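Example 4.3 (complexes with small molecules)
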Amino acid sequence: MDKKFKSGFVTIIGRPNVGKSTLINRLLGERVSIISSKPQTTRNSIRCIYTNDEYQIVFIDTPGIHKPRHALGEYMVKTATESLKGVDVVIVMFDCSAEIGPGDMHIIEVAGKVDSPVILVLNKIDRIAKSRLEQVAASLVTHENHFDAIIPISASTGENLDELLKEIVKHLPEGPKYFTEDIYTDMPEKFIVSEIIREKILELTEEEVPHGTAVDITSMKERENKDLIDIEATIFCEKDSHKGMIIGKQGKMLKEIGTRARVDIESLLDCKINLQLWVKVKNDWRDNKGALKNFGYKWE
Ligand code: GDP
Ligand code: MG
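Answer. The structure with guanosine-5'-diphosphate bound is encoded below.
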């Protein structure tokens, strides 16, 4: 093997409706893919992971960069730029079938200040004539605005996505596979949802509690004709005293865990969530490999 594996983090900036979600879903081939927030990325949440034999691209969402027009200003640009630190590639996406207006300048300004390579992606080329594409590109690329590459694509039809991937990979460093493939192939949403709930327990309770905690998603169903998912989860802990801490006085702690988890799950699955949590004591679950398997942990 002469080629080394490459991996890295990529973020997509763009105003609402330019096609960010469509691109990610297209790359992953399904509606919702992986999403997780890992301890090392407290400010960034993972939206999806694209892996093949040669590389792994972890697409992350950096909060603070999709600000509405009224929030423009030096401070916002600074915060947004700050949130992009540590990203290997920044993709700036525009809808080239729409007018490029003053609001777009916020995005351009942010992109201009980051150190990472910036790829300008002009989306929705299926909707416009080639001459228009050239006009749009010319209006965005001036001598103040430098981009490492300009890639026109259609996230809907998939046109030119190969080119985009190639360009991204060019800028990725050599690195390990941060995530195993099966994380998003066989058990995507449930696993991630349970991790989010666990993360909230970790954030909110005393330190000794979380280590003895596992979360089992007992049911996850889309409600018919509604943009809503009902999720039922059981939190297993080791001792009655832990159960008490997780539930809290008059159920306050559990309520807070549920609220915070719900907000994250909603933003990640892009859908309303009705989350029900139960807490049970399960003695010594950690010693029981069979039980662990049920919780989605793998032994490798
Ligand atoms: P986001 O807000 O940036 O995540 O944008 P979405 O991915 O939700 O897309 C907004 C709208 O644009 C949706 O109706 C998409 O179907 C549509 N859209 C996205 N990409 C394309 C494209 O390449 N061509 C066309 N014609 N429509 C697109
Ligand atoms: Mg979106």
